[in-house]
């Protein structure tokens, strides 16, 4: 499992109206989409994350994949 340290408050922005808002990270558990409080448009959580947090997710996935590749190569 890939772990990324999440801040307590997560900054999100609606891709439709570009309005920004914050939510507690614990409210995002088991959700796939959110509705914008301004325009009501439903969007995926990942699309709404700010770019800094999105980069953290990318980096965590990259690191995990590199570790798994390294372990597989050592087994051979």
Give the biggest beta sheet.
2 strands, antiparallel
Amino-to-carboxy terminus distance:
23 Å
Report the mean per-residue pLDDT as an integer. 88
Domain unit count: 1
Order of helices and strands: EEEEHH
Number of strands: 4
Strand content: 15-25%
- Class per helix and strand makeup: alpha+beta
Gyration radius from CA atoms, angstroms: 16 Å
Q: Which residues form runs of ≥5 with pLDDT under 50?
A: none
Shape: elongated
Walk me through this protein's architecture.
The protein has helices spanning 45-48, 51-75; strands spanning 9-13, 20-24, 33-35, 42-44. It is an alpha+beta fold and 76 residues long. It has one domain (9-75). A two-stranded antiparallel ribbon has the order 1-2. A two-stranded antiparallel ribbon has the order 3-4. The longest helix is centred in the last third of the chain and has 25 residues, at 51-75. The chain is elongated. The two termini are 23 Å apart. The model has no long low-confidence stretch (mean pLDDT 88).
Helix/strand layout:
Elements: E1 9-13, E2 20-24, E3 33-35, E4 42-44, H1 45-48, H2 51-75
Quick synopsis:
The protein has 76 residues and is an alpha+beta fold.
